[in-house]
């Protein structure tokens, strides 16, 4: 199994396309409240702690959130084994 030593291009692209996105975390099913729906196999991933600045509208936040979910899905479609490497990680914008 290849390890994820660099940030996947799909994730890097999120920060390039969405100036307001400062970071987000990827959680496993054990990290979310019990009232969240889950698959029986426990292989779910959830986006959490998404940070945006400056503040954006609800519609803009939803658009960024959907882009994050789509990027993670794309990473997993290319590398299904990456689920364990993504779970528990936080991705953040690099400031220079």
Short description:
This protein has 96 residues and is of the alpha+beta class. The protein has helices at residues 9-17, 58-78, 83-86, and strands spanning 21-28, 45-52, 90-92. The protein has one domain (9-92).
Describe what this molecule looks like in 3D.
Strands 2-1-3 form a three-stranded antiparallel sheet, with helices on one face. It has three helices and three strands; from the N terminus they run αββααβ. 35% of the residues lie in helices and 20% in strands. It is of the alpha+beta class and 96 residues long.
SSE pattern, N- to C-terminal: HEEHHE
**Roughly how many Å is the radius of gyration?**
14 Å
Mean pLDDT: 84
Number of strands: 3
Weakly predicted, low-confidence segments? none
Discrete helix count: 3
Question: Could you tell me the strand content as a percent range?
Answer: 15-25%
| Count of discrete domains | 1
Relative helix content? 25-40%
Strand order in the largest sheet: 2-1-3
Distance separating the two termini: 32 Å
Biggest sheet record:
3 strands, antiparallel
Which class best fits the helix and strand makeup? alpha+beta
Q: Label the overall shape.
A: globular
List its traits.
single chain, 96 residues, alpha+beta, 3 helices, globular
Helix/strand layout:
Layout: H1 9-17, E1 21-28, E2 45-52, H2 58-78, H3 83-86, E3 90-92
Antiparallel strand pairs: 1-2, 1-3
């Amino acid at each position: 199994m290849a390890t994820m030593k660099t940030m996947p291009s799909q994730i890097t692209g999120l920060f390039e396309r969405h100036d307001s996105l400062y970071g987000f975390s990827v959680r496993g099913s054990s990290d979310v409240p019990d009232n969240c729906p889950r698959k029986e196999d426990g292989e779910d991933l959830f986006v959490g702690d998404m940070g945006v600045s400056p503040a954006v509208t609800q519609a803009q936040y939803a658009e960024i959130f959907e882009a994050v979910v789509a990027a993670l899905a794309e990473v997993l479609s290319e590398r299904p084994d990456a689920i364990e490497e993504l779970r528990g990680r936080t991705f953040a914008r690099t400031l220079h």
